[in-house]
Amino acid sequence: MVKKVFLAAVATLIIAAATAPVGSTPAFACHGCWKAAKAAHLSTMKERKAFRKECRAHTHARHTHAA
Q1: Those residues with Cβ within 8 angstroms of residue 36's Cβ, 6 or more apart along the chain or in another chain
Q2: pLDDT tens-place string over residues 18-43
Q3: What's the sign of the alpha-carbon dihedral 42, 47, 49, 55?
Q4: With the CA atoms of 31, 32, 35 and 38 taken in that order, what torsion angle do they form, in degrees rounded to the nearest 10?
Q5: Average pLDDT in the 46-52 region?
Q6: In sequence order, what are the residues at sequence separation of 6 or more whose Cβ sits closer than 8 angstroms to the Cβ of residue 55?
Q7: Cβ density class 22-44: b for 16+ within 10 Å, e for less
């Protein structure tokens, strides 16, 4: 009985891992442009601001054309 429970648990983990969504990049895996800029490990505030501006433009374009 313990063997069957263990095998069922392993099968469940394998199926869950296979169907888990995979982000395109680690920077965009976060929600929000501010968190994505921090996750991108940019060194200066100027780089983070440029990244956030680009991210917002991308998000806006994606939501505008979705309708």
Answers
A1: 27, 28, 29, 30, 51, 52, 55
A2: 676 554 444 444 467 777 777 777 78
A3: negative
A4: 120
A5: 86
A6: 28, 33, 36, 37
A7: eeeeebbeeeebeebbeebebee
| DSSP string across 1-67 | -HHHHHHHHHHHHHHHHHHS---SSSGGGSSSHHHHHHHTT-SSHHHHHHHHHHHHHHHHHHHHHH-
Q: Which two tokens stand for residue 33?
A: 């442009």
Cα separation, 20 vs 26, in Å, equals 15
Q: What global pTM score does this model have?
A: 0.43
